[in-house]
Design a protein that fits this description.
Elements: E1 3-7, E2 10-13, E3 18-25, E4 33-39, E5 46-51, E6 57-59, E7 67-72, E8 77-82, E9 91-99, E10 103-104, E11 112-117
Parallel strand pairs: 2-11
Antiparallel strand pairs: 1-3, 3-8, 4-5, 4-9, 5-6, 7-8, 9-10, 9-11
Length: about 120
């Protein structure tokens, strides 16, 4: 069973940047795909980005060109670099193992809060 812990959230002004981290334990890190999801208040959780075991990346249209997902297999960590943040990016961000690009397969952790002020 893979355990995932998110960190790196915070309060930032619109146009600013944050980098989220997701540390994994258990399983064989370099054999599974990982994704980032987010849930804004009153809204359903939505897909943000995925990185495959081979390094292929996929993004939601709303974050293309602004967010970058990456992984460090030596550190068992996946990152989400978020640039040009907008107030509508405000949400709790979660990571999870994924299949078929955007289907989460594990249980959800506590996530990390990202708040973008206008």
């Amino acid at each position: 069973q893979v355990q995932l812990v998110e960190s790196g959230g915070g309060l930032v002004q619109a146009g600013g940047s944050l980098r989220l981290s997701c540390a994994a334990s258990g399983g064989t890190f370099n054999t599974y795909s990982l994704g980032w999801f987010r849930q804004a208040p009153g809204k359903a959780r939505e897909f943000v980005a995925t990185i495959g075991w081979s390094g292929n990346t996929y993004y939601a249209d709303s974050v293309k060109g602004r967010f970058t997902i990456s992984r460090d297999n030596a550190k068992n960590t996946v990152y989400l670099q978020m640039n040009m943040l907008r107030p509508e990016d405000t949400a709790v961000y979660y990571c999870n193992t994924v299949v078929h690009v955007d289907r989460a397969t594990g249980s959800w952790g506590q996530g990390t809060q990202v708040t973008v002020s206008s």
